[in-house]
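Key result, reporting period 2: structure in, sequence out.
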């Protein structure tokens, strides 16, 4: 949470000046949201979980719509707000059902209470368990609660899109893990199959939609990253579902934590390079990355590395390691069909990640190259802000270090378990 918030802060320094965002409001809202995100993993009762979820979410609505005068930003904020409020209302209804059935809100006491529910309240308890998961499923962008993601990411300031793709997901998955593994372990037959189906749907819908974002059709790079984040959410859901079937749920959850650490570093890095390209190409189309290696070789190499990590290909060893860890969690839990779906989706994702990587190293179009040379002769090269450079460098250093010693991720994750 805190590492992702720090990298988002570095991305935001130049974005505030470029988009003329109100600095005071921006930093207050970002820090408020980060405070809620940091509180959520420490929550040990359902009331604090919901409060922390809202403290993390409410400032995010305002941050998405902070580009005043931009219609897309206002539309994205409204869509994000309405759908999130609906999901929160459903979650609160579920929490009230669980409280009615168990008489407590503390997670461990709820777990004990659900093992001896009055038979007359059994249906109420199961409905409460299912409804409580809705708000967290929304934050993780799981299908069918994902529809807000593409428009919100495209309309939001780029650092906020990066923040939602990483910290927003971390909030959702933290809450999901706490309520399933800690509060509702005795109702695994309710939530485990549901999460397994959600994982399969989420990764499939996200990757298939990302395939439609083509460089030759002037599609947005941010929209591709948005759909990619939906697909990645599907992979992250796999070990959480597996925890409901496994004898050792802690090991399965460790796979989610390990994958989330890899995803946070490389996805924030990909957004950081996107923020760099957006300084000269505000539309941020995939085609705008054509010839990036000739213009900014280090940025192109970093973006290529981040995309290969997300795809799970060398030299992005950490991405491959994280995917194998998640895959083995599904197999160990007896979810062979889900492992097969994941393998198919990894192959699908290779296409659009490799396509974007290839665009980075293609020569610029003749007309654009001539215009660029003419503009370069007339104006000095645009300087990259130090905070943006630092964000790219930190993300790349993390990715390289973890690719060199991927076992550190799993060791850290196993020590961080509940």
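The corresponding designed sequence is given below.
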């Amino acid at each position: 949470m805190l590492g992702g918030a720090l990298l988002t802060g570095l991305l935001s320094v130049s974005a505030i000046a470029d988009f003329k965002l109100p600095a005071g409001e921006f930093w207050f809202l970002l820090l408020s949201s980060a405070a809620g995100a940091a509180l959520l993993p420490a929550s040990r009762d359902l009331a604090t979980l919901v409060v922390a979820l809202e403290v993390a979410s409410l400032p995010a609505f305002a941050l998405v719509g902070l580009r005043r005068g931009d219609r897309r930003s206002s539309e994205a904020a409204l869509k994000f707000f309405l759908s999130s409020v609906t999901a929160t209302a459903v979650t609160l209804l579920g929490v009230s059902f669980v409280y009615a059935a168990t008489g407590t809100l503390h997670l461990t006491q709820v777990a004990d209470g659900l093992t001896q529910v009055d038979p007359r309240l059994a249906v109420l308890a199961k409905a409460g368990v299912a409804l409580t998961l809705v708000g967290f499923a929304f934050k993780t962008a799981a299908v069918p609660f994902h529809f807000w993601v593409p428009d919100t990411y495209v309309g939001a300031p780029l650092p906020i899109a990066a923040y939602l793709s990483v910290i927003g997901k971390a909030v959702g998955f933290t809450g999901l893990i706490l309520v399933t593994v800690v509060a509702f372990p005795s109702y695994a037959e309710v939530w485990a199959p549901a999460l397994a189906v959600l994982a399969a749907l989420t990764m499939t819908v996200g990757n298939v939609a990302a395939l439609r974002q083509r460089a030759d059709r002037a599609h947005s790079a941010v929209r591709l990253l948005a759909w990619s984040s939906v697909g990645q959410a599907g992979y992250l859901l796999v070990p959480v579902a597996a925890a409901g079937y496994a004898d050792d749920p802690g090991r399965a959850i460790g796979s989610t934590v390990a994958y989330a650490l890899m995803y946070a570093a490389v996805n924030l890095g990909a957004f950081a390079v996107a923020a760099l390209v957006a300084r000269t190409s505000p539309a941020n189309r995939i085609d705008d990355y054509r010839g990036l290696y000739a213009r900014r070789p280090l940025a192109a190499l970093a973006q290529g590395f981040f995309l290969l990590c997300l795809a799970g290909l060398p030299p992005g060893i950490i991405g491959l390691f994280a995917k194998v860890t998640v895959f083995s969690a599904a197999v160990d839990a007896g979810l062979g069909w889900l492992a097969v779906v994941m393998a198919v989706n990894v192959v699908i994702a290779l296409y659009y990640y490799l396509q974007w990587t290839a665009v980075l190293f293609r020569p610029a179009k003749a007309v654009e190259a001539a215009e660029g040379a003419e503009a370069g002769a007339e104006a000095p090269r645009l300087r990259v802000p130090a905070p943006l450079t630092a964000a790219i460098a930190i993300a790349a250093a993390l990715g390289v270090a973890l690719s060199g010693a991927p076992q550190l991720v799993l060791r850290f994750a196993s020590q961080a378990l509940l």
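The longest helix spans residues 71-102. The radius of gyration is 21 Å. This case is discussed further under Risks and Mitigation.
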